[in-house]
Write a structure and sequence with these properties.
The chain has 222 residues and is of the alpha/beta class. The chain folds into 2 domains: 112 residues, 3-Layer(aba) Sandwich (Rossmann fold), CATH 3.40.50; 105 residues, no CATH class. It has 6 helices and 6 strands; from the N terminus they run βαβαβαβααββα. It has a 4-stranded parallel beta sheet with strand order 2-1-3-4, with helices on both faces. A two-stranded antiparallel ribbon has the order 5-6. β5 and β6 form a beta hairpin. The N and C termini lie far apart (65 Å).
């Protein structure tokens, strides 16, 4: 299977020969697939993973056909650009082809950056949700342990010195666990907002929360 990026082009008159389209002939890093039929387009979309779909602007005049094409693209989250695709005569099309090549490269880069941002956002979502779950599951039994330790330490004089020492060690370990779970809640303090693309981090508010949190800690130390 080719490692080249794949671009699907929907044009009124399908192009069959490689030399018929200058940018297609010169761009060796891309496989171009041309179609003029929505059913053939669907078959290509099912068969290959495309990075971009280009639609000749003449297609936009046919609203039903254009809607069908756009529906197929949106179902696969495929970015679409509507532009004039001039592939009739290579000599006259060269200037336009260079513009088209530049546009394709920019759109492909933009899509990859967008996908990278989505992956990063989803990772942060998972980290935040996992942190909240762990903190909750650990803190509940930890509170019960700490409460019982405090009750035992109130009767420290009645306890065997060895047992009293071990209880103090347990209290120290519980305090260390509490500090760890507190750090987990810091991760859960990230502020999100719901958008059409999913949950997005509110960077400014998240930073403000952290600054306020550490300011309060510093004031307690003073």
């Amino acid at each position: 299977m080719s490692d080249k990026r794949k671009i699907l082009i929907f044009k009124e008159n399908q192009i069959g020969q490689r030399g018929d389209c200058e940018f297609r002939a010169r761009d060796t890093g891309t496989d171009y697939f041309f179609t003029a039929d929505p059913k053939a387009m669907t078959a290509l979309l099912d068969k290959y993973e495309f990075e971009l779909m280009m639609i000749d602007n003449s297609i936009a005049n046919d609203s039903d056909r254009f809607r069908e094409i756009m529906t197929g693209a949106s179902e696969r989250h495929l970015p679409v650009v509507v532009t004039r695709i001039d592939c009739s005569v290579a000599d006259h099309a060269q200037a336009k082809s260079e513009q088209t090549e530049s546009l394709i490269k920019k759109l492909v880069l933009r899509r990859r950056q967008f996908e990278s941002a989505i992956d990063h956002r989803e990772t942060l979502n998972i980290v935040s949700e996992t942190a909240a779950t762990l903190s909750h599951e650990i803190n509940n039994p930890l509170m019960a342990i700490t409460a019982n330790i405090e009750m035992l330490l109130r009767k420290k004089r009645q306890l065997d010195p060895d047992i009293s020492e071990k209880i103090s060690a347990i209290k120290h370990a519980a305090e260390r666990i509490r500090k760890v779970t507190h750090k987990l809640t810091d991760l859960d303090a990230l502020k999100f907002r719901q958008t059409a693309a999913g949950r997005m981090i509110e960077i400014d508010e998240s930073i403000d929360r952290k600054v306020l949190h550490h300011t309060e800690k510093a004031e307690k130390i003073d």
